[in-house]
Amino acid sequence: MSVKIPDRVRVGILGGGRIADLNKIGWLEHDRAKIVAVCDVDKATRLLRAAEWGCTAYADLDAMLDDPEVDAVEILTPHHLHATQAIAAFDAGKHVCLQKPPTISLAEYDRVAAAATKAGTVFKVYENFMFYPPHVLARRIIDEGGVGDVLSVRIITAGGRMDSGQGWRVAPESNAWRLDPSLCGGGMMTFDHGFHCFQLGRMFIDAHIERVHAFINILDFGNGLQVDAPALISWQYEGPQARYGSWELVASLDLDVLSDYYISDDRVEIRGTNGIIWVNRCTGRLLDEPPVVHYQDGIVRSFHRVETDWATSFRDATFDFIDAILENRPPRLDAAAGRATLAFSLAAQLSAAEHREVTIAEL
Questions:
Q1: Do 353 and 217 contact (CB within 8 A), yes or no?
Q2: How far is 292 from 251, CA to CA, in rounded Å?
Q3: Cβ proximity of 254 and 303 under 8 Å
Q4: How do residues 52-62 score in pLDDT, each as one tens digit?
Q5: Distance separating alpha carbons of residues 53 and 210, to the nearest angstrom
Q6: Predicted pLDDT at 127
Q7: pLDDT at 200
Q8: In angstroms, rounded to a whole number, what is the distance separating the alpha carbons of residues 46 and 107?
Q9: Which of 139, 225, 238, 292 is geometrically suited to a Cys-Cys bond with 303, CB 3.0 to 4.6 A?
Q10: Which parts of the chain sit beneath pLDDT 50?
Q11: Which of 164, 187, 195 has the alpha carbon at shortest distance from 352?
């Protein structure tokens, strides 16, 4: 299908919940983009967002897809809805930006990717950690030879107390679906948030993930509601050189985490043959340290003048989608890359469930 490249990308946002406060930023700041529609099943939410953004409100996705003013759709709904909604958008000839995790199975994902190919429009899996400036700086240091050959990637996530008075206020009913694995597709921490961390595991080493092993504890609150923590997940990269990664997740339920957003923070340590990089913050502000520290040849470099507002990563991730449409190019985290990270995520879930090491190939 031949798709016309627009002079200005006009988006319809599907889902006006809390995360839209960050996803809207790129659409409002890009000089060749505009929010023209919002669709949400909750009347109060869609009317509030329509008034805020100066756009048309829809209660029904099909009605929004019929709107000729809508060039692209950004999907910000619960994971179990993604596949059906994305396929409908592609069938309507729209470009699609699909919030992570894109689907709850590889079979669903492959149907979405096939619909994107048939439509000939841009398909981006939305993952913002790869655009977070300290992470971008870390990758640049790697590319400049700052650690030699990368040997390991270590990620640590600290979750904290939800009622500490820090960060976002998220209504319990808005979080309920994340606590239900049948709707979330896996654990709220290791699958929903986990997609970010698995993408970081892939971001800093240029090799496919070969095998994964996961310990994931389940805190059961009854009525089908669960939190998957603590967790320890490790993996091995393909290739002749031994290279490994790990992600440790701890839910410290009585810990105050300083944050303007979600009550958690992520730290990354990247070790190579002759250097080390530490990324000391992401969503929160646990320690008053330079955002990035680099060690090589006996010299420590501390990078203080790095943008650390997590919102910046959302802006830049959205800009990438908009520019991909305007420039008629694949976005970062295109269909193939998004599938690889999803397979990595699902391998961890399977490993924990079956108490064994899982290879990506078997998925």
A1: no
A2: 24
A3: no
A4: 999 999 999 99
A5: 44
A6: 98
A7: 98
A8: 31
A9: 292
A10: none
A11: 187
Both tokens assigned to 197: 């961390």
- Residue 225 has a CB neighbour count (10 Å cut-off) of 16
**How far from chain centre, in Å, is Cα 41?**
23
Neighbours of 297 (CB within 10 A): 7
Q: Which long-range contacts (CB under 8 A, 24 or more apart) does 53-62 make?
A: 53/13, 53/24, 53/28, 58/12, 61/14, 61/85, 61/88, 61/89, 62/88
- Structural tokens at position 287: 């320690």
Q: Quick one: 289 exposed, middle or buried, by C-beta within 10 A (0-12, 13-18, 19+)?
A: middle
| Burial grade of 60 (CB within 10 A; 0-12, 13-18, 19 or more) | exposed
Please say whether the beta carbons of 170 and 209 come within 8 A: no
Alpha-helical (H) ranges within the chain are 20-29, 43-53, 61-65, 79-91, 106-119, 133-143, 172-175, 181-184, 194-203, 311-327, 335-354
Instruction: Check: CB of residue 263 under 8 Å from CB of residue 282.
Output: no
Given phi > 0 = left and psi -120 to 50 = alpha, else beta, which region is 145?
Answer: left
Predicted TM-score (pTM) of the model is 0.95
Q: What is the pLDDT of residues 205-260, one digit of tens each?
A: 999 999 999 999 998 878 777 889 999 999 999 999 999 999 999 988 788 888 88
Average pLDDT, the chain: 94
